[in-house]
Amino acid sequence: MNLPGAQTPVCLPATAATIAAAAACLRNGGVVGFPTETVYGLGADATNVDAVRRVFAIKGRPAEHPLIVHLASRDWLTHWARNVPASAELLAEHFWPGPLTLVLPRQPHVADAVTGGQASVALRVPAHPVALALLQATGALVAPSANRFGRISPTTAEHVREELGNAVDMLLDGGPCAIGVESTVISLLGEQPALLRPGGISVAQLEAVLGRPLVAAPQGVRAPGRLPAHYAPATPLEVLPTAQLAQRATVLARDGRRVALLTFANSSAGLATLPATHREVMPDDAISYARLLYATLRQLDARAFDVLLVEATPDNPEWLAISDRLARAAFATLQA
Ligand code: TXA
Ligand code: MG
Fold first, then answer.
1. Secondary structure of the chain: what % helix, strand, coil (to 5)?
2. Ligand 1 — pocket residues by CB below 6 A?
3. Which of 38, 121, 141, 145 most suits a substitution to test ligand 1, by most atoms within 8 Å of the C-beta?
4. Is 82 helix (H, G, I), strand (E, B) or coil?
5. How many CA atoms lie less than 13 Å away from 72 in the CB half-sphere?
6. pLDDT tens-digit map of 30-67
7. What is the pLDDT of residue 271?
8. What confidence category does residue 233 fall into, taking pLDDT thresholds of 50, 70 and 90?
């Protein structure tokens, strides 16, 4: 474990040997950054309250915001949750391992430190070989995204290092995350399954398996991913319809502001020739866009633009997770 004043965290390529070392560190109460298929997580033993508290401290996350418990397989579902409805079993069977988190009534042994004192627990089996190997060797791990509270989730080990420096004991590098946005969070606490956070599994995929529509999130559920301002880059960000991009960029540039545009390849002509702007062309399909979004925002943050202007994404369900993250990033700007 890192002692005060210790050097930078050990960031190691994930191999059988480094995974075993990370598992040992976790069993001893350590905190380890590791890859999942969605984003990098900040892992700790879900049964060790001191280790869980360290995760909150490292992230700067308010203690009442609950964490996801990651499991090695769906066989552990009823160990952590009780009154598990058939819909939860069905979703777990179809989508685990994968980017889906299920919120269920918790078993009494689940620590308040994990659930933020709520009577429910969030569970997921991640689909990344490194995450699964760690889980098989340790049991259950809490793993919020490995970023400081409110900021962009990391999709590479290098991002974790930038975010958390040597606050973590170990960092496993498993390459860039394949999905790039966080898991979809579904509540199964009410009569009907409810969407708490759009993410890696689309609403259409879930509804096809459930055979009925998801309902909107009930009021009163505490989930930081649902705060209006979240997932935000440091640079102010605005989301605009295609037709307004050129004009807004021109006004800002005229005021001497350094503007970066995030647009689709075929968005309106005229953007390419705008003076004093940088243009980042994003993919047209939602899956590729999601994979690149956070890394692109981070790269642009590092270049110290004054404003990021993002072309609004298509208004269709496939883009829901992306438009949700962009709206929250933009809201953070409005508040700043
Ligand atoms: O893809 C992911 O889910 C990543 C990777 C690392 O697995 N993890 C992640 O964790 O995004 P975090 O802590 O950044 O976001 C967890 C989300 C939050 O919106 C949290 O409020 C919600 O899950 N959540 C956790 N427990 C909950 C509960 N008992 N009730 C409602 N929402 C809950
Ligand atoms: Mg997060």
1. 35, 20, 45
2. 36, 38-39, 41, 65-68, 99, 101, 103, 115, 118, 120-122, 126, 143-145, 182-183, 185, 196-197, 221, 223-225
3. 145
4. coil
5. 10
6. 999 999 999 999 999 999 999 999 999 999 999 889 99
7. 72
8. confident
